[in-house]
């Protein structure tokens, strides 16, 4: 395989990785939101004022009600959403010229790697917030894993 073929493969591989990490972040945000909506200390405290808000906006609103600072998280989630939408909807159109030459493909690989790292970092932040919030409800990582196993078993039994 020559260098050009390998670069094309790398571009698509990095695109796949960045897309995967974007989806992982989406799932982490949704999981945290569902947790906050279903394990409330005070039901008023864990409902959002506007159900038409994006999942990320609902999450940050609930976290603010719990006293969690969300300024940087809001910024990061907005950037993540915009980046994900760009990747999914117009990335290859916007990079069609770059895709045609070696230096352009290197640029694409670099920016896709940066996107992947950004998504992973924001996902870690969301996960850390989720775990810290779960601890306030008396749930450890082990008890969360057990709870997840129970939920998965219920889903599997319901499908059977």
Give an account of the 3D structure.
With 160 residues, the protein is mostly helical. It has one domain (3-159). The chain is built from six helices and no strands. α1 packs across α2, α1 runs parallel beside α5 (102-136) and α3 crosses α5 (102-136). The protein is elongated. It starts with a helix and ends with a helix. 19% of the residues are buried. The mean pLDDT is 87.
Task: Please give a handful of descriptors for the protein shown.
160 residues, mainly alpha, 78% helix, elongated
Fraction of helical residues? over 70%
Q: What is the assembly state of the chains in this entry? A: single chain
* Unreliable stretches covering 5 or more consecutive residues: none
Count of strand segments:
0
What is the tally of helical segments? 6
Which structural class do the helices and strands define?
A: mainly alpha
Mean pLDDT value: 87
Radius of gyration: 19 Å
Distance between the termini: 46 Å
Write down the overall geometry: elongated
Percent of sequence in beta strands: under 5%
Largest sheet: none
Written as H for each helix and E for each strand, in order along the chain, the element string is HHHHHH
Domain module tally: 1
Topology:
Layout: H1 3-38, H2 55-65, H3 71-89, H4 91-94, H5 102-136, H6 141-159
Helix pairs in contact: 1-2, 1-3, 1-5, 3-5
